[in-house]
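4.2 Preliminary Data

To establish feasibility before requesting continued support, the project team ran the inverse folding procedure on a target of 374 residues. The structure was first converted into the token representation described in Section 3, and no sequence information of any kind was made available to the design step. The complete token record follows.
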């Protein structure tokens, strides 16, 4: 069993973990839930011996302290970490990545059996052993990372955000594989943002908030906890309505009922004869337009003639301005420049420079070797 008691980690003056205590037994899945920056990744790195901060506390596995051991010795003891971002060797093949996972003496003796178990757990990797790892998809690379950790024959497998960047379909497949790892008798310590799916396969869970463990319970109870639902499962602030319960609105509002339109009556019901309507419309349309008096017609002609005179004056003024030079057109509000003084006898004559266009001569070489100018 992996036991962590009063683990404290600090990076300089910044505390990352404070008095954290957890335990993981073989054959169970334990999930750590918490917001970004709560210290989840630091917890896994401290257990695996690769934490860069100051680590204090007691970490034991099968009654053996892991604090004094180096990271490779911790892996040899049976505790393996799949870091965030997978951390595979992209330029090596899948088979070479898996072989590097079995570098410890304990895993090297059973390398063939471990490889067969890993390929049965991840059958897609059997036909991809010669493929370069970086050419695989994100989900396949995550399989390689977990399979490489499984090649060390771990008793406790720790995973840091394994579903990060995966599609929902690949996430579902990943968590199914983790449930299969649990059936092999391997303990799984899982740090995961996908709280819903991780709690669905986990046995127990811890809430890590502000560098401290604030709650511990079974996965089923954590999934139904209102605080966990609100913080990690996306539940709203309203409580779930019980079956058969009736909620009373403290300030009921009277529903607005739209007024019904009066029923439409037909032409016959209104007592109107269609023939009378047609006859009236025909008689009105044949009436001649009303005659205008001579006085009104003369007024209209006078207004039209006056408007035409104004338009013609505007056109003539615009034409005169267009024929003048720009300097002679007076602008509104502009100051007219003073006339230039006549040149005196001492003024030197203006210099006139003439530029000729350059002439380009083209020479062609004849078959005889002579050049011809064109």
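Position-by-position output of the design step:
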């Amino acid at each position: 069993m992996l036991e962590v008691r009063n683990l404290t980690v600090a990076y300089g003056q910044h505390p990352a973990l404070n008095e954290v205590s957890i335990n993981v037994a073989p054959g169970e899945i334990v999930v750590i839930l918490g917001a970004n920056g709560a210290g989840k990744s630091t917890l896994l790195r401290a257990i695996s011996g690769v934490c860069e901060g100051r680590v204090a506390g007691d970490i034991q596995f099968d009654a053996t302290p892991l604090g004094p051991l180096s990271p490779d010795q911790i892996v040899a003891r049976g505790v393996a970490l799949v870091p965030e971002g997978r951390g595979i060797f992209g330029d090596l093949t899948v088979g070479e990545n898996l072989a590097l996972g079995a570098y410890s003496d304990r895993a090297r003796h059973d390398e063939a059996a471990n490889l067969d178990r890993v390929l049965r757990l991840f059958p897609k990797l059997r036909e991809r052993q010669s493929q370069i790892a970086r050419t695989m998809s994100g989900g396949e690379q995550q399989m390689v990372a977990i399979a490489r950790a499984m090649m060390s024959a771990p008793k406790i497998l720790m995973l840091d955000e394994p579903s990060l960047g995966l599609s929902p379909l690949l996430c579902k497949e990943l968590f199914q594989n983790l449930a299969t790892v649990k059936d092999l008798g391997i303990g799984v310590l899982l740090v995961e943002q996908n709280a819903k799916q991780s709690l669905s396969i986990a046995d127990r869970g811890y809430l890590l908030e502000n560098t401290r463990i604030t709650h511990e319970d079974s996965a089923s109870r954590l999934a139904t906890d209102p605080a966990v639902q609100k913080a990690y499962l996306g539940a709203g602030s309203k409580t779930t309505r019980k079956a058969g319960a009736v909620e009373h609105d403290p300030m009921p509002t009277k529903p607005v009922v739209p007024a019904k339109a009066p029923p439409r009556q037909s032409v016959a019901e209104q007592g109107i004869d269609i023939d009378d309507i047609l006859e009236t419309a025909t008689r009105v349309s044949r009436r001649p337009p009303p005659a205008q008096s001579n006085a009104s017609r003369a007024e209209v002609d006078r207004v039209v003639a006056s408007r035409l005179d104004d338009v013609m004056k505007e056109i003539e003024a615009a034409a005169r301005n267009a024929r003048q030079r720009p300097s002679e057109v007076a602008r509104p509000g502009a100051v007219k420049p003073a006339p230039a003084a006549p040149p005196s006898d001492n003024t030197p004559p203006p210099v006139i420079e003439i530029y000729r266009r350059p002439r380009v001569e083209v020479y062609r070489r004849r078959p005889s070797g002579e050049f011809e100018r064109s």
